[in-house]
Each structure stands twice: as C-alpha cells, then as structure tokens.
C-alpha cells in the first residue's frame, strides 16, 4: 500500500520534502497558504553540502543551471575597497548564488503536477495511533505522516509544541535587494558592526544584503532605499551602484530572528522540517541548505526503517544535533559581526589580514569545514526509474 504524506508549506524545504518522499514511493500533498507562493528574501547561496543533497534528489543539474557561481566567502573587503582576502582563479570553492524563486522553481518542476494546493492555510492538526489529519480552509486531509515546513512562525509548531519559545530577535536588521548589475564575482564587505553581502544570481542580476545592529524589531523608514544609501553610499564600488540600480519597491527590510533549540522535532506522526524546526540567522548561509538536508535524511529514514515511528526517531536523532549546532554557530558569527566598537572592528580586520592565504583557501574548500563536509544518505531510485 502506498504511503501518503501531507507537507505543510510550499517553500524550498516543503518542496524538497515532497520530492524526497516521491523518490521513495510516497504520495504527497503540499499545502501552501499563499494564493501564489513565492520566496521572500530575494537571494541566497548554496554550499557544497546542499548541492550534494540536491544531487540525491535528482535535481543537481537543474539547480546548477539556475544558479551562478559566487565567491562571496572568498572576497572579504573593507568599506574603502581594500581586500582582506581575495579569491584567485582556481583556488577558491565557489558557492552557487540563486534568486530564491529560481531554486524553488527547480523543485516545483520536479514534483508531480497538481500536488501543491495554494490558498490552503492550516488551522488544525489532529492525530491518532495510525494517522494524522490536517484542517485547512474548511477542508481536511488525512495521511500517514505530516511534515511541517511552514517556516519560522510555524502554525504546526505552535499547535503541537505550545510550550516552545517564540522566535528570538537577534538584535539585527537587514535590507535586501536585487539589481540588474551583471558580472559581479560576489563579496562581503565588513564595516564596524555591519556587513554588505553581494551574490550574483541568474539573468545578469546581483543580490545584495546590508545587515546592521538594531535595538528592537519593527524599526522602519518611509524611504528604505534612501536610508540604505544614506548609511553606506560612500562605501566602495559597486555598492552605491547596486543600491541605486535597485527599484525602491524591491528593497525588502526584515528583522533577523532564530529559534532556541527544541527538545524534539517529532510529535507523534508529525515532523518539523527547515525553519519550522531550526530557523537560523543568515550568517552561515545555511538556512535553506539545512532544510534540503532535512528532506533527504527524513526520506532515507522512512525508506530504511520498518515503521514510521522508528523512522521519525531516526530523523530526529540525526538532524537535531547538526542543525542546532549550525544555529548556535550562526548566532555566534552574527554576534561577532554585530559588535560596533571601533577597537573590536580593527582587531577583527587585523586578524583576517593575518590569516595565511593557503589556510584561508583550505577552510573554504568543498570539504574544508564540518558544515560543508556533510554527505547525504542514499535514496532508492525513483519507482518509475526517472
């Protein structure tokens, strides 16, 4: 008998979960509350660990065609344009830069047509010994398993983990944008308590993010683009040009939160995945990548264990230590760059300049750090051979 799953959330994590379960022979329905689902955040990068997971899902080639190599991790600069570290041809591992919508489209095109239902806001989850039922928009569905991939403010987590703490504000805010500026290699510019990130993305565009400290969430400006330019319009090229080339209505302003660790990602026949389980700051570029990893590990556990309960225990045991360590590491990295003291900033810049180039390149190799070194479990071949 074919197993069935309901995936709550039609973003990158939810679609990766649907695709992973499809590959082990499960049927899935994805419930997405938005009428026309998209991806907030404009851009991102994927590291070697996520690309290996996408390969296991059978969409690596499509993802590489949708992404653009970015050397942001290897090109560190100061606001006056000087390089602290610089990528040289052939000696740095590029990440892949994406517009979030482009990677989501790769996954959407790979799942069965019609498996995503929009305008389906989940309002209830109930379970018994053999199934789980999800209520949404006056309708309901019952399946063997529910996967909650509904983001940092997950409804499913709130319903089934009522004692879990809410998202934690990390004392930082970010402006994000996409500009039609082609040919940039990617870079990170470090200022006192702030940084400016550039990733190239498809179709001759560049994604940028400017992150600074904030005393509390919710601070907004009437003209967000002008506020960014006021702050860093004198930083090195191409930063002013990127801001200027971004349409004002396309500048996104968000506050940065993460989640404190949960004691379990599993409750009965419900599993949390991605930001619903372990939302993290963007400082290690791992948010979406960890959700794709989750999807592969969950599917491998379901394929390899005789019971759903056993598979969910295995998923929880494998994913919680790694993802929660990544959350802690990203939070720590963010705290380091959030410090506005000029003395601390000068010390950081001096330290980065002193790192020997071979050591820097070694740390940015495809296997150069514990996060990137991860290998996915193998999934069975798809039932239809594709």
Keywords for this structure?
386 residues, alpha/beta, FAD/NAD(P)-binding domain, six-stranded mixed sheet, 19 strands, 34% helix, 25% strand, globular
Shape: globular
Top-tier CATH class of the domain at 4-70 and 98-167 and 259-337: Alpha Beta
Mean pLDDT: 94
Counted beta strands: 19
CATH superfamily of the domain at 4-70 and 98-167 and 259-337: FAD/NAD(P)-binding domain
Residue share in helix: 25-40%
User: Largest sheet at a glance?
Assistant: 7 strands, mixed
- Estimated share of beta-strand residues: 15-25%
Architecture (CATH level 2) name of the domain at 4-70 and 98-167 and 259-337: 3-Layer(bba) Sandwich
Question: Could you please say which CATH topology of the domain at 4-70 and 98-167 and 259-337 applies here?
Answer: FAD/NAD(P)-binding domain
Protein name: FAD-dependent monooxygenase
Organism: Streptosporangium fragile
GO molecular function: monooxygenase activity
Keywords: Monooxygenase, Oxidoreductase
What secondary-structure arrangement, pairings included, does this model have?
Elements: E1 4-8, H1 12-23, E2 27-31, E3 43-46, H2 48-56, H3 60-66, E4 68-70, E5 76-77, E6 83-85, E7 95-99, H4 100-110, E8 116-117, E9 122-127, E10 132-136, E11 139-143, E12 145-148, H5 155-160, E13 168-179, E14 187-191, E15 194-201, E16 205-213, H6 224-232, H7 239-245, E17 252-258, E18 266-267, E19 270-272, H8 275-278, H9 287-304, H10 308-337, H11 342-354, H12 357-363
């Amino acid at each position: 008998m074919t197993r069935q799953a309901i995936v709550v959330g039609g973003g990158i994590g939810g679609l990766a979960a649907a695709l992973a379960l499809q590959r082990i022979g499960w049927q899935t329905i994805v419930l997405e509350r938005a009428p026309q689902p998209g991806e907030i955040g404009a851009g991102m990068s994927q590291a070697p660990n996520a690309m290996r997971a996408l390969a296991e899902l059978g969409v690596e080639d499509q993802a590489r065609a949708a992404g653009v190599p970015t050397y942001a991790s290897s090109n560190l600069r100061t606001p006056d344009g000087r390089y602290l570290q610089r990528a040289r041809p052939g000696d740095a591992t590029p990440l892949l830069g994406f517009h979030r919508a482009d990677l989501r489209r790769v996954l959407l095109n790979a799942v069965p047509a019609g498996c995503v239902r929009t305008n389906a806001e989940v309002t209830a989850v109930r379970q018994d010994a053999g199934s789980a039922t999800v209520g949404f928009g006056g309708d309901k569905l019952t399946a063997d398993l529910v996967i909650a991939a509904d983001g940092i403010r997950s409804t499913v987590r709130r319903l089934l983990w009522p004692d879990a703490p809410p998202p934690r504000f990390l004392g930082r805010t970010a402006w994000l944008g996409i500009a039609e500026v082609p040919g940039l290699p990617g870079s990170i510019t470090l200022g006192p308590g702030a940084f400016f990130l550039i990733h190239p993305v498809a179709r001759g565009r560049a994604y940028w993010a400017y992150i600074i400290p904030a005393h509390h969430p919710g601070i907004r400006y009437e003209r967000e683009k002008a506020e960014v330019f006021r702050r860093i319009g004198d930083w090195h090229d191409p930063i002013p040009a990127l801001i200027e080339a971004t349409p004002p209505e396309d500048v996104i302003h968000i506050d940065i939160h993460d989640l404190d660790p949960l004691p379990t990602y599993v409750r009965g026949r419900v599993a949390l995945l991605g930001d619903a389980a372990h939302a993290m700051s963007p400082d290690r570029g791992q948010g979406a990548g960890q959700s794709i990893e989750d999807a592969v590990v969950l599917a491998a556990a379901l394929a390899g264990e005789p019971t759903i309960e056993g598979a969910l225990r295995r998923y929880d045991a494998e994913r919680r230590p790694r993802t929660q360590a990544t959350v802690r590491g990203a939070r720590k990295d963010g705290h380091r760059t959030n410090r506005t003291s000029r003395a601390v900033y000068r010390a950081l810049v001096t330290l980065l300049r002193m790192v020997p180039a071979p050591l820097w390149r070694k740390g940015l190799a495809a296997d150069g750090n514990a996060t990137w070194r991860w290998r996915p479990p193998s999934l069975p071949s798809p039932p239809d051979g594709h």
